[in-house]
Automatic annotation (TrEMBL):
It is found in: Membrane. Signal peptide: none annotated. This is UNC93-like protein MFSD11. One of its GO terms (cellular component) is membrane. Belongs to the unc-93 family. The chain crosses the membrane at residues 7-26, 46-65, 77-94, 100-118, 138-158, 170-190, 238-256, 276-297, 309-328, 386-404, 410-431. Its main location: membrane. It comes from Formicarius rufipectus.
Amino acid sequence: MSSEGKRLFNIIILGVSFMFIFTAFQTCGNIAQTVITNLNNTDFHGSGYTSMAIIYGVFSASNLISPSVVAIVGPQFSMVVSGIFYSLYIAVFIQPATWAFYTASVFIGIAAAVLWTAQGNCLTVNSDENTIGRNSGVFWALLQFSLFFGNLYIYFAWQGKTHISESDRRTVFIALTVISLVGTVLFFLIRKQEDTKAPGDEDSANEILGESSSARNKMLKAVAAFKKSITLSFTKEMMLLSVTTAYTGLELTFFSGVYGTCIGAVNRFGSEEKSLIGLSGIFIGVGEILGGGIFGLLSKNSRFGRNPVVMLGILVHFIAFYLIFFNMPNDAPIAPMEGTNQVAYMNPSKEVAILCSFLLGLGDSCFNTQLLSILGFLYSEDSAPAFAIYKFVQSICAAVAYFYSNYFLLQWQLLIMVIVGFFGTMTFFTVEWQAAAALAARGSDYSSI
């Protein structure tokens, strides 16, 4: 197999592994609050929103050390160990206990930081400036199949049910735990890819993440990775991209946790309200897959770079937010177990709710594929620290959003996303224009990114 063939093979295995793990985890996140609401009349007294706030809070802090961890143990082993912790978190729901639930939330936050830093490094090392757009799209599309498969099962298994029984819960979460473990094992198929950076380049990914038999050298590399993360976080480009990344954290919280809870709380949807959570997740996944396929696989045919894709993403999201505002009751995110009988500005429509799910997924793929692409392009020599900063900002904003989701009415959550989304789009445009100017100065073809 050619060198390029090995690289593409690694990207596909990376995407498939993440697909299995996040089929389990994202389905778990999408139904967690609904399942927990049914448990809270027992000895279990946890909150799905609080758990996710803990996960993303720890996740954000752990990104400060994740490049050092990856530097010491390597990206492949980092992803394997992280996958095991994802599986343990999901397994907690088989026989829930409040202490185990929140403890697992802390550990998965650490694991997530290491997993995504290692993923960013693996993606970048297996790409160059001509293939980073394509590879980002391939990875993203494969990853987002996770939203499709898990939620398809939830839709059919929970159709017509207004209460989730203990048997239903155990069956779902045993299956999700096994699926997560399958994804973890697949990481072993990733083939070692030699770094193509110049051997004398002190800032190369090989310098930061290369293997060494010397424990002292590994510690030096860990310290170097940490210092590089701090240095990069204060560069102009990274600070501008952090505003865009902050928006992806806020809307990640909304579509992966809050919106499904809103749908499940609307009593006017009748006996389908719980199964609609699964259908919503399916259409979020369809939007993500479509966006990843179109904007990643066809990126080489774009003559205009990344900005039009991000512009499409924000327009699609604004349309979704407008329709959700009119369709969903204001108290839906914080409704009690009995749900809500309130009505917004129109009678709740299942069709509009599912359309909004698709739009949320499509818009999210627009932002994330382009962020992955521009980070891989701008920081090809410092991939692990750059992706750690990206996940640090995204996760801390997701944690904040999960925290205020316990208290804020729907209209205020939507308003926050509109404001941050607008400014995040503007800052992305600024960095992309600078990237285009840098390419022109080097005489490269802008359409190749």
